[in-house]
Amino acid sequence: MIKSKKLASAVAVACAMTLSSVAYADPVEKLHQEELVINKAGVKSQKRVESIFEQSIDLLSEYRQIVDQTDNLRVYNDHVQKLVKNQERAVSSLQSQIDSIEDTKKGVVPLMYKMLDSLEQFIKLDIPIEVEKRNERVERIRRLMTEPNITTSERYRQVLEAYQIENDYGSAISAYQSKIDGITVDMVHVGRIALLAQSLDSKKAWVWDNSSRQWTALNDEYLKPVKKVIRMAKKQVAPDLIQVPVFASESAE
């Protein structure tokens, strides 16, 4: 009887201890689970923080790019404004020049007509060097004066070129063929000092007398010198000293 009671007491104590262990283990498990939940939540929070930080870095980089672009645009806009102001000044200057050009044209065109008249009169009074060619040049320029597709500057250039050609006659020696009283002759001019002519058979020679505006026959002694001058002008012989008849200027009374 006593043994049975001791056994029952032992069993009761064991059950009590088991129940006590079970009761103690349940809160620990809960704490462990809660700790896991907290850890998971912490991991998620950390990931969110890292994501927000990365986004912040991206936004900061984008902000800096925008600031740089804004500064570049500001500098570029200042540059463009300066260009526009300079272009406006250039346009204003060009307009002033255009207006002045129109005023210049009004003075240049009459001047060119006067220059052509003077040139035509000069050719008439000058020794008759290639007269037809010179007169044709003047007439051609006169026609250009009324051509609508020719600029004023081009007309003026043509007039100046004609004057330059006339000036060159004074220092050139050139030969060409022409006619005297229906006879074909070789003509040669030594600048404007002398205008000579010789028949193709070299048997006759003439010199132009500008005071009487006519040809004067030369003596036979001038046949060889005139022929030599003609050959020099044609570059058939080397340049050399030449003997040409020259009319002495009249003494003033």
TrEMBL record:
It comes from the Bacteria. The keyword Signal applies. InterPro entries: UCP028069. Pfam families: DUF3450. Residues 77-104 form a coiled coil. Keywords: Coiled coil, Signal. Residues 1-25 form the signal peptide. This is Energy transducer TonB. It comes from Catenovulum maritimum.
